[in-house]
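dumping this here before i forget
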Amino acid sequence: MKFKRVTVKKNERGLLLRNGDFERVLQPGTHWLFAGLDTLRVELFALEAPAFTHGLADYLMAREPEVVAAEFVRVELTENQVGLRSENGVLVEVLAPATRRLYWKGLVDVQVEVIDVSASAEVPAALVARLVQTQLRQRAVQGLAGVLQVQVPDHGAGILWIDGKVERLLAAGSYAFWKFNRNVAVELVDLRLQALEVTGQEILTRDKVALRLNLSATWRYPTPADVLKAYKELAKPAEHLYRELQFGLRAAVGTRSLDELLENKTVIDEVVTAQVKAKLADYGLQLDGVGVKDIVLPGEMKTILAQVVEAGKSAEANVIRRREETAATRSLLNTAKVMEDNPVALRLKELETLERVAERIDKISVFGGLDQVLNGLVKLR
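structure:
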C-alpha cells in the first residue's frame, strides 16, 4: 500500500488530481492520500489571492456545480453585462462582458455586482465617484481600460459621441461611460473667449503690391446649445473660422490700393468683421473682434515709401523755413522803419548791440568819451 501525506494550511486550499483528473478540494489539515498504482498530485492555492486561474475552471463550472457552490464565488457574465468585483468591500476590478471566473471563498470576502450596459453607456453617478482617482489608492482598480472617465471643467462643455453620432452635451462635472460594445468619445470645448491668429498671409493689393499681413481675432460659442449646433454643421469649427478669416482678409486687401490701405488701416478690420460675421451666424459661432497686427511691405517698397516720406518731410521743412525767414525779414524791415523816424530808438538799438558785444570780451578801452563808443575809436582786447 502506498500513501502520501499532504498538509494544507489554514490560509490555503488544495486541489487533488489523480492521474491528472480532478478528484476533490482538500480543506486545511493533514491528509493521508492512498495512491495505489495511480499518480497523485496536489496543487496548493493561497487564499490571499482569491482568483482561481486554472485550466480546470471551465470543467468545474460545467461538471462540478456542487464543488463550485461550496468552494467558490462564481462569475458568469453575458455580452451585455459588466461586473464590479470587490474584495472586503473595496472595489478592485471591472470585469468585462462575457467574463467567466471562479474566486476562492474562505479568507477574502469577494462580491461581484452585475450591471447591464445594453440600455445606457453612462456609468451611474454613484459609481463614478468610486472610479475617480483610483490610481491614488493603495491598490489600483483593474480593468479601467473599459471605462472612459471625463472631467468637464467649469468653463467648458463636453460633446458626447457614441458610435460616431453626437449624443448630447455634457455640462461641467465628472462623468464615466462604458466603452464595451460601443465606440465612445468625448470632445471638450472651451466656452470662454478664444483667440485665433491668422499669420503670414501674402496678398496682392489692387495695384499689384504684395503685402504680408498678420490678423488676430477673438471668438466664442454664445451659448452651450450653440456648441452642438456648430459640431453638427462643421467637422472642426475653429478651422472653418480660420478659413473664413483668410477669405475676408483677401476680400478686404485685394479690392483696395496700397494708398487706400495706408490711409485708413481700420478698413481691413471693418470689412473682415462684416463679411465673417454674416457667414458664421448659421453655425453657432460668434466673432467678437478682429484686428490687423502687422502689415509687412516688400523690401523695395519700403525703400520707395521711405524716400516718399523723406521728400514730403523735407518739403514741409523748407516751407516752414521760408515762412520763418519771411517773418524775420518783415520784422527787420519794421524795426528799420521805426529807427529811421526815431533817433532815440536808433540810439537804444546801438547800445543794445554794444551790450551784446561787451558780453563776449574781457576788456574794453574807450577813448574820446561815450560818444566815441559807436562813432570814434574802440579798442577791444
